[in-house]
Write a structure and sequence with these properties.
Layout lengths: L1 H11 L7 H9 L4 H12 L7 H9 L4 H12 L7 H9 L4 H12 L7 H9 L4 H12 L7 H9 L4 H12 L7 H9 L4 H16 L3 H16 L3 H10 L1 H27 L1
Helix pairs in contact: 1-2, 1-3, 2-3, 3-5, 4-5, 5-7, 6-7, 7-9, 8-9, 9-11, 10-11, 11-13, 12-13, 13-15, 13-16, 14-16
Length: about 270
């Protein structure tokens, strides 16, 4: 069987269209699930639309979750819209959370709007925080406005600060103005300096595009909260939020902040 799988894999790129049904049938007969998955993966990109339902059905029958996830990922790019509900259902049934997240990630960019609530719900159910953040990040670009509050709430619940920051970064430029203060509050709560800096940097430009009256109030509150941190953290966080300062007062505000930092530095010394 290993030799048959190797032969199919070697031949996959060379097979003319009329031989692909036979090649797929041969791949399905391989008893070893890892070798069957490898053969399906090799054929996935070559299969015409009419063979994709058969290939997806073959992938679903693989019991080994790693092999099933790999086969599903390979097929994701080629699946027709009518096969996506079945593919998403298959991904959701993967028990291993890491592999489930990989499958959801592969499908995320292909899913039509009507399947996105189901995909987001599946991502939220992942207990492993790295895997949940990965799935949320993949879905972020596709989510319609009505699902963004739910996605932001899911990101905020991630306990790992690095993974929470990754999810916030992915959502940052998709959030409407009314959700940006909530995202900023979540970013400010991150204690790890590197993760907080990355999240603040991602949010700075969207925040700078908020109406000035709303932004000014948020900036006053933010500046007060940042001032309660260490000197190093305060300076680092202000640097990441320069687009917000510029939006509020232009180059003059940047110069004034720079001057104030210089004065305070001299006082400290």
């Amino acid at each position: 069987e290993s030799n048959r799988a190797k032969a199919l894999i070697a031949l996959a790129d060379k097979l003319p269209p009329e031989l692909l049904p036979e090649a797929l049938a041969a791949a399905k007969l391989i008893q070893s699930e890892s070798n069957r998955a490898k053969a399906l993966i090799a054929l996935a990109d070559k299969l015409p639309p009419e063979l994709l339902p058969e290939a997806l059905a073959a992938a679903k029958l693989i019991q080994d979750e790693f092999s099933r996830a790999k086969a599903l990922i390979a097929l994701a790019d080629k699946l027709l819209p009518e096969l996506l509900p079945e593919a998403l259902a298959t991904a959701k049934l993967i028990q291993d959370e890491y592999y489930r997240a990989l499958a959801l990630t592969a499908l995320a960019d292909k899913l039509p709007p009507e399947l996105l609530p189901e995909a987001l719900a599946a991502a939220k159910l992942i207990q492993d925080e790295f895997s949940r953040a990965k799935a949320l990040t993949a879905l972020a670009d596709k989510l319609p406005p009505e699902l963004l509050p739910e996605a932001l709430a899911a990101a905020k619940l991630i306990q790992s600060e690095s993974n929470r920051a990754l999810a916030l970064i992915a959502l940052a430029d998709k959030l409407p103005p009314e959700l940006l203060p909530e995202a900023l509050a979540a970013a400010k709560l991150i204690q790890d300096e590197f993760s907080r800096a990355k999240a603040l940097t991602a949010l700075a430009m969207p925040l700078s595009e908020m109406p000035t009256t709303l932004l000014f109030t948020r900036w006053q509150q933010t500046l007060h909260e940042l001032s309660l941190r260490t000197r190093q953290d305060l300076l680092s966080d202000i640097e990441k939020l320069v687009p917000v300062i510029f939006a509020l007062g232009g180059q003059l505000a940047i110069a004034e902040v720079n001057c104030a930092i210089g004065n305070v530095t001299r006082w400290w010394h």
